[in-house]
Write a structure and sequence with these properties.
The protein is built from 11 helices and 17 strands. It is an alpha/beta fold. The protein folds into 2 domains: about 190 residues, Medium-chain alcohol dehydrogenases, catalytic domain (Quinone Oxidoreductase, Chain A, domain 1, Alpha-Beta Complex), CATH 3.90.180.10; about 130 residues, 3-Layer(aba) Sandwich (Rossmann fold), CATH 3.40.50. The strands form 4 sheets. Strands 1, 2, 3, 6, 7, 16 and 17 form a 7-stranded mixed sheet that branches. Strands 10-9-8-11-13-15 form a 6-stranded parallel sheet, sandwiched between helices. A two-stranded antiparallel sheet has the order 4-5. Helix 10 links the parallel strand 16 and strand 17. Helix 4 crosses helix 5. The structure holds NADP nicotinamide-adenine-dinucleotide phosphate. The site of NADP nicotinamide-adenine-dinucleotide phosphate (NAP) has 32 residues, from helix 1, helix 4 and helix 5.
Length: about 350
């Protein structure tokens, strides 16, 4: 645990009747990858191959596949299997399957009997049910982060029915946070960014937010007291939540999608404002398709910083240091094109 990421050989399962084999072109780096590899959530299964923001080309399809043909582009997000029959699965909430969702990596794999291995790899085999169609013409590198950062912020904005003119706060300007800002701005909401990084304040306007506040300065929060309809927090480590809850208006909701623990809840302050603290987990497959289609239709794309596979460990350090603007994407495509164009690669 905590060891650097190194190249290794892994075995994928054979392509089953409902499976597709995807030649991975791009894979985003989510803070969940860092949490997992560095043991923040316990000891991961070994080998651990992270990556749940995957975009690639379909190179093989099982005999019963109807959703994809060879040559098309497909995406895979955070999950690859669920029971398909529980109340949640039947209502497009496979991400919280009552019998246990199989996540894209570090999850018991009911099909192969091992552990799932994610998208920092040459190829993945996945059931077509869990693959997302990528509209032709979409920029592929910047599509990858929508499959986690995009859906995780789109889902609560939809669930809590954010409307034009509402005041929305976004805490943490990283991968999820900057997508929350872009999606909320596209809904014509008035967005306030809460950041701990002075260097990101200037980006607020470019991203379409109304303001950015350095919330390490508690005085700076005072003018916002009782004003916001909803807040999405993406903070990855334990944090003091009450100063943020104090900025919510009556009956406002703070949705904590970051997996850092909110601490220091003041029950009296919550009660007097009838305020709510909620959670949200990615989104279902239909909703993931919806966010991809929505981003394509409205020209919403993550800001990505491209890296090569040998830069993953440095990228992990930079994610922890809050030094990414705003999502690292591993470029497997250039290498493959380069190899494909050498004479001896045939
Ligand atoms: N619920 C879900 O379904 C779901 C899905 C995906 C990811 N996640 C979780 O969401 C979290 C964020 O993921 P991400 O990929 O967006 O991470 P990220 O790119 O690292 O962004 C997180 C941002 O939070 C702020 N931050 C970092 N450390 C902080 C600290 N100690 N105190 C206060 N603010 C801090 C930083 O923004 P500033 O510099 O602006 O302060 C940072 O850029 C992770 O915990 C991840 O595991 C949850």
């Amino acid at each position: 645990m905590g060891a650097p990421i190194v190249p290794m050989q892994i075995q994928r399962r054979a392509v089953g009747p409902h499976d597709i084999l995807i030649d991975v072109l791009y894979a985003g780096i989510c803070h969940s990858d860092v949490h997992t590899v560095r043991g923040d959530w316990g000891v991961p299964a070994y080998p651990c191959v992270p990556g749940h923001e995957i975009v690639g080309r379909v190179v093989s399809v099982g005999e019963k596949v109807t959703k994809f043909t060879v040559g098309e582009i497909a995406g895979v997000g955070c999950m690859v299997d669920s029971c398909g029959t529980c109340e949640n699965c039947l209502n497009d909430r496979e991400q919280i399957c009552l019998r246990g969702t199989t996540f894209t990596y570090n999850s018991p794999d009911k099909v192969s009997g091992g552990t799932t291995l994610g998208g920092y790899s040459e190829g993945v085999v996945v059931s077509e049910r869990f693959a997302i169609r990528i509209p032709p013409g979409m920029d592929l590198a910047s599509t990858a982060p929508i499959l986690c950062a995009g859906i995780t912020t789109f889902s609560p904005l939809r669930h809590w029915q954010v409307k034009p003119g509402q005041s929305i706060g976004v805490v943490g300007l990283g991968g999820l946070g900057h997508m929350a800002v872009k999606l909320a701005v596209a809904q014509r909401a008035e967005v306030t960014i809460f950041t701990t990084s002075p260097g990101k304040v200037a980006d607020a306007k470019r991203l379409g937010a109304k303001r950015a506040v350095l919330w390490t300065d508690r005085e700076a929060l005072k003018p916002l007291a009782n004003s916001l309809d909803m807040i999405i927090s993406t903070v990855p480590y334990p944090f003091e939540v009450q100063p943020l809850l104090d900025t919510l208006a009556l009956e406002g909701t703070l949705v904590n999608v970051g997996l850092g623990e909110p601490r220091g809840l003041n029950t009296f302050a919550m009660a007097f404002g009838r305020k709510r603290l909620a959670g949200s987990m990615i989104g279902g497959i239909a909703e993931t398709q919806a966010v991809i289609d929505h981003c394509f239709a409205h020209g919403i794309a993550p800001d990505v910083e491209m890296i090569t596979p040998d830069q993953i460990n440095t990228a992990f350090d930079r994610v922890v240091d809050k030094d990414v603007r705003y999502r690292f994407v591993i470029d497997f495509a250039s290498r493959k094109h380069a190899v494909a164009s050498t004479p001896d690669a045939r």
